[in-house]
Hints:
The protein is mostly helical. The chain has one domain (about 1-28). About 80% of the residues lie in helices and about 0% in strands.
Amino acid sequence: MTWSFRDAWVILQLHILDAIGKILIYAP
Length: 28
């Protein structure tokens, strides 16, 4: 299995969006 920069970037964005979503949900 080969990893391209685009694949890594897409996964990174998904993790960032998930983290932002959790911050917005748990923020007062």
